[in-house]
Amino acid sequence: MRASPRPLSPHLQVYRFQVTSVMSIAHRITGIFLVVGVMMIALWIITLALGLEFFGLYQQWLTSAVGRFLLFSWSFSMFYHLFNGIRHLFWDAGWGYGLKHAYVTGWIVITASFVFTGFLWLTPIFMD
Amino acid sequence: MKELENIYLDHGRNGSKHWIAQRLSAILLTPLSLWLIADGSNYIYKEYSTAVQWISKPFIATLLGATLTLFLFHSYLGIVVIVEDYSRGLLRHILIRTTASIFLLTAIASIGSIVMLSF
To answer: What residues of chain A lie within 8 A of the CB of B93, using their CB?
Structure first.
């Protein structure tokens, strides 16, 4: 295979920190984290099919501090990636490109992500 | 098959198809992921029999299967973009093939499990 002469994407340290750039990078990072989460859900279903013994072991790990932390981070990533994804869809439709719009919608996404994650983890069912 | 490979294993030459597939799966996943969080969070920490009862309902099994498949597909499309941003040549080729294989195997295993549990 011939090596591509096209340049690679600039690495992260190139960008100056501001809400818009941090949010763009966070979209990708939460996306990667969601892959970890979807694998955890897939494994939950697979152990369910494997039987009580496997499910019990997996459940035990999910209930541990590490398991809970991963699920918590996953739910935050889910809300963030979802809300910011909707922001991206509006951009795709040509709306919200102005600097002011980009900042306002950005802060809405950040606030909503924290609020939704908080509500989810405050429900008693989830804390059993 | 060749056509499918061209679209999904090398989006450099099929950027618009990759773009559309990513947006379409994103739009479908918007309600589905909210459903998964709202309903699934009630069962993730429940005991075995309760979880099996939930998952074996035909409606839930179908919805969960669709959600999971779209999640894995959308994940795959996203990982490919990252791989293509930061690697090239043979390494890129190997990474994309490996990613595709992992997501495909996960999809087969989890869809198979749902089918086993509900029929």
So the answer is: 1
